[in-house]
Amino acid sequence: MKKIKIIAVILLVLTLNACSDFLDTRPKDFVSPVNYYETEAQLNTALNAVYDPLGSSALYGDLMLGRMSLDGDEGYYTRVITAGPAIYSNAPSDNNITSFWQQCYNGINRANLLLENINKAQSINQVNKDAIEGEALFLRAYYHLLLVSNFGAVPLVLESLPNAENTDIPRTPAKQVYDKIIEDMTKAEGMVKPINVVGYGGKVNQSAVRGILARACLYAAGHPVNDMNRYVEARDWAKKVMDDAAAAHALNPNYSQIFINYAQDKYDIKESIWEIEFWGNRVDAYQEGGRVGANNGIRTDNEVLGYTYGFIATTGQLFRLYQINSDGSSPDLRRDWSIAPFSWSPASIKVPFTRTQVFERDCGKFRREFELLSPKNKNFTNQNFPILRYSDVLLMFAEAENQVNNGPTTAAYDAINQVRGRAYGKLLPGATNLTEANLSGLDKTTFQEAIQDERSRELSFECLRKSDLVRWNIFMFSMRRIAADFTANAPAARQFGATAFNNVTERDAVWPIPSRELGLNKLLTQNQGW
């Protein structure tokens, strides 16, 4: 499936290359829609072009994997730098933030072009046509979700804008953006194909739409929009994923295997519902490699193992969220996979960390030694990256159920305890009933706090934490707590890690509107504090 997508995107480069700048100039080498979108093959090629920005270097292909501080209180950037979003020293002129904005609107523009012209194709099966339209509609909404959750109010763009004359569009209030995201995703849910029909996680499917709808509803229900009625919808969309007998979603019994699968191009659609696909290592004909594992893996300069920069290391806060035994080990099997328990020596030998070496530990989820593709490129990998996993759905359901019922129900406990049970090995062969993993006896507040901690244990380094902290309205509290922890507990050689957390102010809950876009679009306004 990956090869088909990549070839299609290459073919489209000279035909549908939408503006690289938001609402900037007429696309170069543009083929008029009058001459395109007439066959199913052309529609699929155009759809693949809508997917393509997700894997760009500005999004999941590079920058989001450690350079944009999306990990919140879970990790810190391991290089000493003086500016940039990695250390919350932002500026409206920052290239990384500008590129993020531009690629999201690039995807939106491509989706709009497809949606406006899809009816030109006549000789196409209606089921397939509906699926293409549904995927494009969902992806347009998802790009808007990335924008509104990181910038706040943004222009809601629902038509293609190939001309510079159409650049002046005001920001739409965040609530209205979320309303439209949820409206469009809801329509798409009835059009796209079920995941068991699609057969792999790299394509938008019904389970993915339902799960991301739950996420969008939780974002809208939380700070700063506070549309509390959305909790009911979040719960109901998550429940649809859980109750889909045909999809039969379930947790992979082995937590580490989820991420080994991403490294080895193995699909597990019961657990991994939607993932960003990468292909090749950019030393062959394929130019779709990303930096999963190269940016956010265990640092090594050994190219046989797979060169890794190790841009992200754990905070003490994340490490201590996992239960710790008296000997320093953890019964929670996620800890020593998500957080590296060793470093690589120059001779490529694993050197275990001592129990006091916490701040030295890199993100361990995305390990290049498990890649099967050879040779391994220094900078690019073929590892996929998760956007939505089934465990996330369970935790979203538990959180929304707690909010809707003013306290945890049996169903809420069952959902979170499934995730915790897997973490403690309950699903592995020969496991006994591990009752110590189960939560019980909590009220609404303490259950919500348990959810907040569990999401970090389960979903760390998956680009979700900052948005979670913001919607829970604990962003500043959490980041300042990490700054104090560095001062009190980090070794001298790692004190620089406190820089980002000391830099954070209230304005950093969102990024600044890029100054380049303010110059192009006279109706744009800047976020408060920037």
Task: Tell me what the structure shows.
- The chain is mainly alpha-helical and 530 residues long.
- The two termini are 43 Å apart.
- It has 18 helices and 6 strands.
- Strand 4 (342-344) and strand 5 (350-352) form a beta hairpin.
Write the layout of secondary structure elements.
Blueprint: H1 2-12, H2 40-51, E1 75-77, H3 95-117, H4 126-151, H5 174-189, H6 195-198, H7 206-221, H8 230-243, H9 255-263, E2 272-276, E3 312-314, H10 316-321, H11 335-338, E4 342-344, E5 350-352, E6 385-389, H12 390-404, H13 410-423, H14 444-459, H15 465-471, H16 475-489, H17 498-503, H18 515-520
Antiparallel strand pairs: 1-3, 2-6, 4-5
Keywords:
globular, two-stranded antiparallel sheet, 530 residues, mainly alpha
